[in-house]
Amino acid sequence: MGFMDKAKKLAEQAQQKLDEAQQNFNQGGSTQGQAPEGGVRYDQHGRPIQDAPPAGATPAPSAQPAPPAPDAEPAPASGSGSANATPDPFKPLQ
């Protein structure tokens, strides 16, 4: 029974530590939607909320590259008579 007594004692100690951690967490008192001093605010889904830029600040330009023109055809490979650089994987072999 010595092993069971030790296991029970360790389980009680672990539960006490969990209870203390839960109390410390609850005493922190941060409510949802309010930022702690100098911290990040989150919306109801847990996503960080970005603050609006200060008045007079210009927004950063978009970092997305322009999409390619849909009617542009790729240039043919030089010296490739009948070889196709990008063959159709579903076309049967001849």
Describe the model.
It is a single chain. The protein has 94 residues and is mainly alpha-helical. It has one helix and two strands. It has one helix at 2-28; strands spanning 41-42, 48-49. The chain has a two-stranded antiparallel sheet. A hairpin with a 5-residue loop joins strand 1 (41-42) and strand 2. It is flat, with a radius of gyration of 31 Å. It starts with a helix and ends in a 45-residue tail after the last strand. The mean pLDDT is 75.
User: Could you tell me the radius of gyration in angstroms?
Assistant: 31 Å
Poorly predicted residue ranges: none
Instruction: Round the mean pLDDT to the nearest integer and report it.
Output: 75
**Strands across the major sheet, in which order?**
1-2
- General form: flat
- Strand content of the residues, in percent? under 5%
Tally the beta strands.
Answer: 2
Estimated helix fraction? 25-40%
Topology record:
Layout: H1 2-28, E1 41-42, E2 48-49
Antiparallel strand pairs: 1-2
List keywords for this structure.
94 residues, mainly alpha, two-stranded antiparallel ribbon, 1 helix, flat
